[in-house]
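Subject: Protein record for review, amino acid sequence with backbone structure tokens
Why sent: The fold of this protein is of interest and is recorded here as tokens.
Enclosed: The protein record, placed directly beneath this head.
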Amino acid sequence: MALNSASRHLIHLSLLSLLASLVASACGFPIGDQTHDVTVRNREDVAVVVYSYGRDPRYKDAIGPGQSTKQSWMYPITPDDRRVRRVEADNAQGTLVFCRDISFADLQRTNWTVDVAVGYEACPVPR
């Protein structure tokens, strides 16, 4: 089956677009949203449910005692990013046992790890 001129042109454009994307990515130009891997670690001897984006249930993880989970955070992502990320944790009864607003500086200081410890409630106002 022979391709017509328009089909060949479309294939060439698609291949050029793919090649340009690969070159840009290889040269360090991000494609898509930037994220940073963050480890959330349960420092307790009981399981907790961690909410890493406020109380949004789409961003919750059940973490067993002494266990951790890796997450991809879209913010804070750079030193000049002044946004904070609220991380909360509940015990098995659904009681808030941990709350902390995490900044970029916090993440750098802790090597991109958030340690959940029961009783640490530093959130200024409940959300």
